Amino acid sequence: MVIFTCSGQHAPVNSGQFDFYGWMPNGPSSMRKPPPSGKGATYQIILDTLPEVNTTTLAMATVWLLSHEPEDKRPVGNYTNERFTEEKPRQHIKEFQRELDQISKEIQARNQNVTLQHLYLDPKRIESSVSI
Question: Where is this region: Disordered (predicted)?
Answer without folding.
Answer: 71-90
